[in-house]
Design goal:
alpha/beta, 3-stranded parallel beta sheet, 42% helix
Length: 132
């Protein structure tokens, strides 16, 4: 990347970088460390045409989402619609994300159009993350 004078490093981590998720102490710590590393590296390589950013997916319809839903259903003895309704109340967009929406954010950050964006963490979460 340095030799080419161009590069893109994009980490897919979690919104827990901005607001830690309850019960995920180790995960929150690791993801926070990755975000801090990315900011440090971004500052070191920006002058060489390399950007370093993080994408922070929220509740996205994936196999992991299904597993979390099933776990929550078992823990609370609630139905899938009940668990989903509670989750959706936390998302201003009122729906779960699609994997292609996360991919679109990554594609943008990987493009030349994002050449002046570096060292940032971009939530793709329907507005759920309660921080700036």
């Amino acid at each position: 990347m340095v030799a080419a004078g161009y590069g893109r490093i994009i980490n897919i981590i979690s919104t827990s970088v901005k607001i830690p998720l309850p019960g995920l102490g180790v995960s929150n710590t690791i993801r926070g460390a990755v975000a801090s590393w990315a900011k440090t590296l971004a500052n070191e390589v920006a002058g060489q045409g390399i950007t370093v950013n993080n994408v922070l997916p929220g509740a996205t319809l994936t196999q992991r989402h299904t597993a979390l839903l099933e776990k929550k259903m078992a823990e609370t003895n609630q139905t899938q619609p009940q668990v989903e309704a509670a989750m959706l109340k936390q998302i201003p967009a009122g729906r779960f994300g699609q994997a292609n929406e996360v991919a679109a954010a990554v594609a943008f950050l990987a493009s030349p159009a994002a050449g002046y964006i570096t060292g940032t963490s971009l939530p793709v979460d329907g507005g759920r993350t309660g921080s700036l």
